[in-house]
Structure prediction request, 155 residues.
Amino acid sequence: LILLFSVQLQWFPSGGKGGLNTLVLPAVTVGLGFAALITRTTRSAMLDVISEGTGVDFKLYNMTLAGKTGTTTAFRDLVFAGFTPYYTAAIWAGSDVAVTLPEEYRQFHKALYKRVMNRIHEIYTHAGFTIPSGVVTAEICAESGLLAGIGQTFL
Prediction:
């Protein structure tokens, strides 16, 4: 990035003292790696919600889905936000008045979400989430936070 935007295009200085423009390229260069890591970790956690967590009932027929379920105290609101490689959609079920949703009304949002998303994805072939080229993976020691070695517990 610094080579392209600073040296070749001369849009930003590569660093140094001065205004905020001197921080743009160093901050972006350092931040991109962390952003990729956070994105990948978040996506992985959201895939787990669908495969083995509270979002199992939202699983689509022929498409990879990642998402996050949610509810408020005493089941006053039910929320699910999910995304596939093609679309993102969320559903909220609740009331403007703070009342607890009866047990029989706590499942319909799952069926509605699945029906809509399955219908939307009928024309697409199954696709998983791809890891962009250039992303490097590593196993991290759960105790030290450093690169894991032989006999250490992985995160």
